[in-house]
Design a protein that fits this description.
Layout lengths: L1 H8 L15 E8 L4 E7 L2 E7 L2 H4 L2 H16 L6 E5 L4 E5 L11 H12 L10 H15 L1 H21 L5 E4 L8 E4 L2 E4 L6 E4 H11 L4 H12 L5 H25 L5 H20 L1
Antiparallel strand pairs: 1-2, 2-3, 3-5, 4-5, 6-9, 7-8
Helix pairs in contact: 4-8, 5-6, 5-9, 6-9, 6-10, 7-9, 9-10
InterPro entries: Aminoglycoside_PTrfase (IPR002575), CcrZ_PhaseVar_Mediator (IPR052077), Kinase-like_dom_sf (IPR011009)
Pfam families: APH (PF01636)
Protein name: Aminoglycoside phosphotransferase domain-containing protein
Length: 286
């Protein structure tokens, strides 16, 4: 990884940055996820976030290009940091680094408003449908962990009919698709969206469900999020759409957890299955 970072820093003359006089130096890791590695790097007073793509993202240059396009659109709208460099062959993305404000309590109404502005951006190439993403993840689990898949078949059978309804439910727009707490930062008094790896045109209610389920928001927080997004208090059909998309998100999250974890904790799997089952029950009740 050190050699890869060194090679990425050596491309600094190709970065779209005015006045960059010297090669940036690494300061510290920004995060080491299951797929990608990010670093804070600096040249003089300028700071950047440099991401080295993991195998899955590095093998998909089209995903990287879509992310770059989404970042550029969002930056021009004041929603994301400026993208500075993309090398799809090396799997390198460089953006401005946004220094987080200290001691800021997040307002979920503001998060909802941020999502509304993201969804108003020009649309890009549609990504795979949620049903297709789930099927790809399910196939990987069936192949690699047939015993675990056997345990999931009852849930999979229940969620399958719901997935077919999702793509035609609600409007489409440019979606971030992963705007969880870790991918939101308040800097300079403004809320920004970072890490646009999964950005694509798709159903906007998936974005809302991802925040609610991914951050495990309670009922008041969900109401604040939807109120900020809709500009008014959510009505019964809004809650029903949210719950439907939460089923899809939780199923995809469960499959992704099984697929990527080398040894998924049994307790975590049971909890995720239970929450998915509760979502399906709530949807069936409507």
């Amino acid at each position: 990884m050190h050699e890869r970072l060194t090679r990425a820093l050596q491309t600094w003359r190709d970065w779209q940055v005015e006045g960059l006089q010297a090669a940036p130096r690494p300061l510290r890791p920004l995060g080491c996820g299951l797929n990608n590695h990010s670093y804070l790097v600096a040249s003089g007073s300028q700071r950047f976030a440099l991401r080295l793509a993991g195998k899955k993202l590095a093998a998909n240059p089209a995903w990287q290009c879509t992310e770059w396009q989404a970042l550029a659109l969002a930056h021009r709208a004041g929603l994301a940091p400026a993208p500075r460099h993309l090398d799809t062959n090396a799997g390198v993305l460089v953006c401005d680094y946004l220094s987080p404000d200290a001691n800021v309590a997040e307002n979920l109404t503001t998060v909802g408003a941020l999502l509304r502005r993201i969804h108003a951006l020009p649309q890009l190439t549609p990504g795979p449908t949620l049903a297709a993403r789930c099927e790809a993840a399910a196939s990987a689990v069936r192949y690699a962990q047939p015993g675990t898949w056997q345990q999931l078949q009852a849930l999979a059978a229940r969620v399958g009919p719901l997935l077919t309804r999702l793509e035609d439910t609600g409007p489409q727009g440019l979606c971030h698709n992963d705007l969880l707490r870790a991918n939101r930062v308040t800097s300079g008094g403004e809320l920004w969206a970072i890490d646009w790896e999964y950005a694509a045109t798709g159903p906007v209610w998936f974005d809302l469900a991802a925040v609610c389920a991914g951050d495990e928001l309670d009922s008041p927080a969900r109401r604040a999020l939807l109120t900020g997004y809709l500009g008014t208090a959510p009505a019964a059909p809004d809650w029903q759409r949210l719950n439907l998309f939460e089923c899809g998100y939780r199923y995809l999250e469960l499959l992704w957890h099984i697929e990527t974890a080398t040894d998924p904790a049994a307790a975590s799997l049971v909890e995720k299955q239970s929450r998915l089952a509760q979502c399906i029950d709530a949807t069936d009740a409507h």
